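Researcher: Good morning. I'm working through a list of sequences from a screen, and I'd like to move beyond sequence-only analysis. For each chain I'm collecting a predicted structure so we can compare shapes side by side. This is the next one on the list. No need for commentary yet; just the structure.
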Amino acid sequence: MVPAYDRARALGLALLVAQALGVCALACASADVGPSAVTLTGQATSAPLLVSLERTSCYGWCPVYRVAVYEDGVLEFEGEHFVLRSGLHVDRVTPAQLAALREITARARVAELADRYVRRDYTDMPSIITVVRLGSGYKQVRHYFGDTSAPARLIQLEEEIDRVVEIERFIGTPAQREDLRASW
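Model: Good morning. Structure tokens for this chain:
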């Protein structure tokens, strides 16, 4: 299912369609891809993307959302399902959070990661699509959470991005999401 994006740029929508079809649109860090290919709306800032993370649905109550952080500190969050705050929200991260995001992406050695970890060792799990700015290009890594071959540093990167941007203010804590389950 491809979400309706009347706000998305044509290239951004093409990327979402490619992701839904399981096609890796951004093959490597040196790919000639502009920021509009990896932003949520591109309307909140003209700064280049620093990092984005998308969590897809699972068989259950997994939060479905996208978050993008730009070099100027603008944060875009779009909550789709099983989150505290649905829809598009724009906020800012601090300079310390920007520095932390740069540090954790460097520590994860993103350029060395494979483009895809999509083996189905376990079923009914979400996927996580991470995009990181590397120099003048971007590296995208698609990770199906049921693929046991994914390196620990990728899983740690995904978790640390959420921690640094304080994602629970948008998706809610596990206890808050549990309380909201009845309304979903």
